[in-house]
Predict the 3D structure of the following.
Amino acid sequence: MKSALLALAVSVSVACDSPPPAGGTPKASVPAQDKIKEDFEKDNPKWKFAEGRWVRRNGVLAQTAETQPWAVAILEDRSFSDVDVSVRVKPLSGNEDQTGGIVFRAKDAKNYYLVRSNGLEDNFRLYTMIDGKRKQIASTQVEPPKVGEWHTLRVVAKGRKIQAYVGDRLLIDHEDATFSDGYVGLWAKADSVTEFDDLEASGTPGKGP
């Protein structure tokens, strides 16, 4: 009975993941009408830390405290419609999770898109967050990022098209119309201790939250 349940769980888990886009998939781009760069060298009052314990240290922004279910930081600077946003992420520790993610088209700390990596799981996932409830809308299998090593996450959202990268590799190519514009931000889950650096966003101005 246990083996049957395990097989079912594995099949369900695998069914959640799709192959990465084919090599010839057209890559979306957006005009850089507006830009943000954040190197975390100094305080920026436009950051809103809704959950978690976010600390600037040694030129990075670190999420350092266990937070259930997730830690959220929103940069309430410029609202973007079409957006190209990237950040460097370094997972440091976590027994339950070792996550780092990009929030985009955020209305507030409970309504946004999220793309995240996880050092304890071999998947890269895209979610909607609606009224604080998370829903997975796309996922693919990847090699987990290594603890203590930097990797770069990037999202390009153009209209309904959402493309997400780890490094230079396009891993998610999806369409969704839940959110059309909003702020960018950062995300971690549970007991993840994660550092972030070199956040960059550019695109077309949104209407705001």
Observations:
- Residues 1-15 have pLDDT under 50 and may be disordered.
- DSSP finds one helix and 14 strands in the chain.
- Helices lie at 2-15.
- The first strand starts at residue 34 and ends at 38.
